[in-house]
Amino acid sequence: MKRLTLLLLALVFTTSLWADETEGDRTTKGQIAPDFEVTSLDGQVFKLSDLKGKVVLVNFFATWCGPCMQELPELEKQLWPRFKNANFKMISIGRQHTKAELNKFQSKKKFTFPIAADPQRHIYEKYAEKYIPRNYIIDKTGKIIFQAKGFSQKELDEMMEIIEKAIKE
């Protein structure tokens, strides 16, 4: 029985190593980003198609997601201060969270970047089927130039390089 359990665990692990890295995606790098409109917790209307000419970061998270809770403070500390005054916009969208839930979350966390609710996953489902956190960098023409799921410092460093380069172009 132990041997069978170990074999099954090994199979699951190795299968995940070979899993398609695009699993759960509904978008691809190079395509025009799906348009959406959302109002942030502080009342700002964020309509993606109105942001042509700016570099945009769209981040999807959930308050219960461990990697999201690692990523958001790093976005606050490293990315947001570096680009918030540049030709750049960012929105962090709480997947399947209500505005009330996010207001409670925000009162504890005190992030300074814009946060919005997507209680029915209408925005998220334009971009992905599953997995969070997710990040999408959209260039000045509205094309997705970077997309990723999960969180690592290496990915955050890569995102900051891509944003910096896209702002300069």
UniProtKB/TrEMBL annotation:
Annotated transmembrane regions: none
Alphabetized InterPro entries for the sequence: AhpC/TSA (IPR000866), Thioredoxin-like_sf (IPR036249), Thioredoxin_CS (IPR017937), Thioredoxin_domain (IPR013766), Thioredoxin_ResA/DsbE_sf (IPR050553)
Domain Thioredoxin, residue spans: 27-168
Domain of life: Bacteria
Signal peptide boundaries: 1-19
PROSITE patterns in alphabetical order: THIOREDOXIN_1, THIOREDOXIN_2
UniProt GO molecular function: antioxidant activity; oxidoreductase activity
SUPFAM superfamilies: Thioredoxin-like (SSF52833)
Keyword field: Redox-active center, Signal
Entries under Pfam families matching the protein: AhpC-TSA (PF00578)
CDD domains in UniProt: TlpA_like_family
PANTHER family given in the database record: PROTEIN DIPZ, THIOL:DISULFIDE INTERCHANGE PROTEIN DSBE
Name listed for the protein in its UniProt record: TlpA family protein disulfide reductase
